[in-house]
Structures are given as C-alpha cells and as structure tokens.
Amino acid sequence: MRCLIVDDNHDFLRAARDLLERQGISVVGVASTGAQACRACAELQPDVVLLDVDLGDETGFEVARVLVQQAGPAQPRVIMISAHPADEFEEVIADTPALAFMPKAGLSAMAIRGVIGSAGSEAASGPQRDSR
C-alpha cells in the first residue's frame, strides 16, 4: 500500500512516516499544504492519503474535495486525521469524499488496512444504510 501523509506539523510527519514504514506501509511522500498534496498525489499516485483536518490556514476537508476531483478515476482513498476527537467533526467528515476519520493517536498500519478493508467489503456488498 502506497501512502501520502499531509500534515503541517513536521514532527508528526516524521513520526508517522517512521511508524507506518516500520509496520509495512510504503510512505511515498509527505506534504504540508493543500497545493503540495495535490502535486504529490498527481505525481506519486498513492493508494491512500492521510490528511490532517487542520492544515494551518487551510482546511483538510476542502483539500480532500480537491484531491478527489483532480485525481479522476485513479483517486486515492482519503482518511482524515486529527489530534482532536471525531465527534468534533462528524457532520463535516460525512460531507467530504473522505473514506473515514482516524485519530492521530490511533494511527497504525493495521488501523489503515482495517479502514481500507471495511470500505472494500462495503463496496462489494452494496451501500450500507444508517439504521438511525
């Protein structure tokens, strides 16, 4: 699995890259801004993009929309990440093309593979309905 990490915190980028590569995920690139993420996606064509919700002056939610629109049929799976809990972003995440949300504290190769695997099984069995 080829991964691009997008975050404006350079210490987090370094730590996340080291962790994921030790766990068998190929981190093909990192980016700190939406523009860098768009260029890296076009050039590197990752399978998955870990995208921070807060990129300083930018919102990761808008960057997610742009990444998916620009990628065409080869669009990567976008997973939103944040140091903040998911409940702060639930409605906004639901309105993005992101596959899922993952807290930074829970980041691991196994968690990423789990999200990707869940999305694959949902696609195979048809759309999942919210039972609320």
Q: Quick recap of the structure?
A:
The protein is an alpha/beta fold. The protein is built from 5 helices and 7 strands. Helix 2 runs parallel beside helix 3.
Describe this structure in words.
The protein has 132 residues and is an alpha/beta fold. The chain has a single domain, classed as Response regulator (Rossmann fold, 3-Layer(aba) Sandwich), CATH 3.40.50.2300. It contains five helices and seven strands. A five-stranded parallel beta sheet has the order 2-1-3-6-7, sandwiched between helices. A two-stranded antiparallel ribbon has the order 4-5. Helix 4 (90-94) links the parallel strand 6 (77-82) and strand 7. It is globular, with a radius of gyration of 14 Å.
- Uncertain residue ranges: 123-132
Mean pLDDT: 87
The CATH topology label is: Rossmann fold
Write down the secondary-structure element order.
EHEHEEEHEHEH
Using only CA atoms, what is the Rg?
14 Å
Structural classification: alpha/beta
Count of separate structural domains:
1
Which sheet architecture does the biggest sheet show?
Answer: 5 strands, parallel
Tell me the total number of β-strands.
Answer: 7
**What level of helicity do the residues show?**
40-55%
Please give the alpha-carbon distance between the first and last residues.
34 Å
Secondary-structure map:
Blueprint lengths: L1 E5 L3 H13 L3 E6 L2 H11 L3 E5 L1 E2 L2 E2 H12 L5 E6 L7 H5 L5 E4 L5 H17 L7
Parallel strand pairs: 1-2, 1-3, 3-6, 6-7
Antiparallel strand pairs: 4-5
Q: Notable features of this structure?
A:
Rossmann fold; disordered C terminus; 132 residues; globular
